[in-house]
Amino acid sequence: MSLLLKNANIFNGKDNVITAGNILLAGDKIVAISSQAIPVGSNVQVLDLKGKYVMPGLIDAHVHITASQLDFNEANVHKGYMYARTFNFLRDMIRRGFTSVRDAGGADMGIKKSIDDGLLPAPRLFMSCRALSQTGGHGDYRHQASEMVTCACSLCSASSIAIICDGVTAVRHAVREQFRVGASQIKIMAGGGIASPTDKIDNLQYSDEEIIAIVDEARRFNSYVMAHAYTPAAISRCVKYGVKTIEHGNLLDEQSAKDMHDHQAYLVPTLAIYNAFKNNMSSEVPDSVVNKLDEVRLKALESIRLARLHNVKIGLGTDLLGDFHSFEYDELTLRSQVESAFDTLHSATYINAEILDMKDKLGVVAEDAFADLLVLPKNPLDDIHLFNEQEDNVLMVIKNGEIVKNLLA
Fold first, then answer.
1. Bridge partners of 85?
2. What is the spatial distance between Cα 200 and Cα 47, in angstroms, rounded to a whole number?
3. CB 161, CB 187: distance < 8 Å
4. Is residue 74 part of a domain?
5. In the chain, % of residues over pLDDT 70
């Protein structure tokens, strides 16, 4: 398919400017951008945008698309139900304008192949398969009453999100196994978390030797490691051992921010999930979550401010679960308390593409980039609240050069 987007105002994802121009798409790529008229043949569909705004498709760098409920302990969730919910989450994500997502634990090759084969409308998927957790770590969702297991091998975590592996040999095997089944990158649980029932936020998880081994395996696969970490100690040790992205990072301080900058690591804040839990408490939310929530929620915005102060590159993720997936836009608007609309959208496009190792291919309106684009009625750099669930301002979504949503027709 060839498509000419005519008379557009363009935010390219990289620069804090709007330029007027025309964009020609052919196949799955952007082939020409010009302020002058682009001559095309009769076989090219021409769409006059009449001054509407075009920007790159949004990227959510921290999702859990298989998380069909708010409790990660999915021992009693039927797989068919989980997959049906997953496909609904993906459809809604791309309709919101998220044309790529990075799954931080749970997605599998069956889901990815369904997307790649065009069986359902969905974002591009970059998946970690199962996140790696030590016994009793953030990825271990077994109840304390679960039977004790004493072997140092890969174990079921009572969740689709993670796998338990202890020891250097076991973590190397687990990394290789995730790549074998289709992982784009490796996710590790390097510190305590909110959703896990038996650990504390300030726990340091995995030994130095285990993290070094995991990073080594990922690098030899030409990939990288993303790490769940809240505390300064967890953050600093991860980046010193070569972890590329710190997920959440709410308790970041001056020294750990400096460490992130020095080691060229990225921060991926996830504000939406804490806000969703805080504003929508119900009996479905486990007590273990409620008791640990405020410990990290109240520091989240300060971590972004500190990261920017120390020139740490900041991506954007949401980490939403179950019905909370509908709050995806909240991540954009919550960030407006500490940064400009450009900063947020730059994170959600250009920087997230760097994180995915897709620089100049995704997250940018540029020639030879993939044709993943949004059409908006107003300038998104003027007000990030343009993105909201109450008023659908994403008028068109284009992924791979194909129109997957069109409210202009």
1. none
2. 54
3. no
4. yes
5. 92
Assessment of whether the complete model's pTM goes beyond 0.90? yes
Condensed to tens digits (0 to 9), the pLDDT of residues 76-132 reads 678 888 899 999 999 999 999 999 999 999 999 999 999 999 999 999 999 999 999
The reply to whether 191 falls in a domain is yes
Q: How crowded is residue 29: how many other Cβ atoms within 10 Å of its Cβ? A: 15
pLDDT tier at 153, thresholds 50, 70, 90:
very low
Residue 55: strand pairing partners = 374
Same domain, 33 and 158: no
Phi, psi values for residue 76, rounded to 5°: -110, 15
Handedness of CA 299, 262, 61, 400 (dihedral sign): positive
What span, in angstroms and rounded, lies between the C-alpha atoms of 47 and 44?
10
First to last CA, the chain: 18
182 lies in the same domain as 48: no
Length of the chain: 409
The closest of 307, 233, 214, 316 to 268, measured between CA atoms, is 316
Condensed to tens digits (0 to 9), the pLDDT of residues 12-65 reads: 999 999 999 999 999 999 999 999 999 999 999 999 999 999 999 999 999 999
291 lies in a domain? Answer: yes
Residue 36 lies in a domain: yes
Specify the pairing of strand 162-164 against strand 402-406.
unpaired
**17 and 157 fall within a common domain:** no
Quick one: which of 386, 226, 201 has its CA closest to 298?
201
